[in-house]
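Backbone shapes recur. Consider a single case.
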Amino acid sequence: MWNTKAWDDVRMFFPDNNNRSRVLLTTRELDVANYVDSSSTYHQMHLLNKYESWSLLHQKVFGKDDCPPELEKIGRSIASDCGGLPLAIHVICGLLSEAKGRRGSWEHVANDVKAAIAEKDKQFSNILSLSYNHLPYLLKPCFLYMGAFPEDHEIRASKLIRIWVAEGFLKSKGDKILEEIAEET
């Protein structure tokens, strides 16, 4: 939950019938948590420290394998720049996995992360935009089509594939039907 208005919009669907129902709410905004119910206790998650951040990045990119020595310093810097946010680290790991251990690519990602965190109020959305910026140009229109759906809306893969086929985002390959190509992609 990002703001108090979102809670007001959702709350109307929860009647107060004294039946002891509970709602689990997650937010990074302390003012939203207090607005929802200042008398309730809440669990505040901690940010990852630099060691936990590096451990998560290392595990997501390399699994049980060792990190090549020429990438470790860059990797630790990237992990630290993610500000202890596990989701940000996960997003960046996707980019690093695509870089396939090339030092120059890792340095490029590191520079992008540093630029993304420069604006504190837009830090997280800037990090997410990095994953879009690093998509192959053929996939960018497919990703942008997600904006046609309401936030938190469940999107059926079959529906999305039909839309992409209709838009011409998928090209024929031999005698395979376009839906099969989408499933492989």
About this structure: The chain has three domains: 4-36, 50-133, 140-184. The CA atoms of residues 58 and 67 lie 7 Å apart. The mean pLDDT is 81. The first helix runs from residue 4 to 11.
